[in-house]
Amino acid sequence: MSDSLDERIIAALREDARLSSTALARRLGVSRATVHNRMARLEREGVITGYTVTLGEAYRAGQVAAHVLVEVEQRLTAQVTGQLGRISEVQALYAISGDFDLIVVLSAPSTGALSQLLDRISELRGVLRTKSSVILETKLQR
Questions:
Q1: Residue 138: pLDDT over 90
Q2: What is the Cα–Cα distance from 73 to 76, expressed in whole angstroms?
Q3: Residues 6 or more apart whose Cβ sits within 8 Å of residue 124
Q4: Which of 1, 39, 55, 62 counts the highest number of beta carbons within 10 A?
């Protein structure tokens, strides 16, 4: 179970996953060994499962992003999810309730490439229908 220090470590890493143990220790006012041990435990317990890159606005501005609602034939949900997971332009995949079963977040270099991705998704075996919304502007992303 995590405590206040663990939460502070996690918050600092969310801001900058490249922070060294030394920099984290300095920022949090604890020893480097404490930070190292806590991070090792958080990784071992599956609280932290990896470190990632957050793309900057300059890069994202050159991409076209969309949210795609997907209705899936229920018995093929696992197959469709697996196929979507193998598409590198899929940034996130959420199971949802309601008229649709999944939300797919896509990122492509152009509207043409996005259109091809949407066609590719709609042609997957088990996909019954899709509904897409192109993201015009990101107001907040954490």
A1: no
A2: 6
A3: 80, 83, 84
A4: 39
Instruction: Check residue 2 and give its pLDDT.
Output: 61
Which residues make Cβ contacts (< 8 Å) with residue 133, sequence separation at least 6?
66, 67, 68
Report residue 20 as tokens. Answer: 């060294």
The stretch 4-20 carries a mean pLDDT of 91
- Residues 69, 84: Cα–Cα separation, whole Å: 13
Q: Is pTM beyond 0.90 here?
A: no
Residue 9's nearest CA partner among 114, 74, 27 is: 27
- Structure tokens belonging to residue 5: 């220090």
What is the length of the chain? 142
Q: Which of the four pLDDT bands, split at 50, 70 and 90, describes residue 141?
A: confident
> Which tokens belong to 23?
């920099």
Cα–Cα distance, 107 to 72 (Å, whole number) = 21
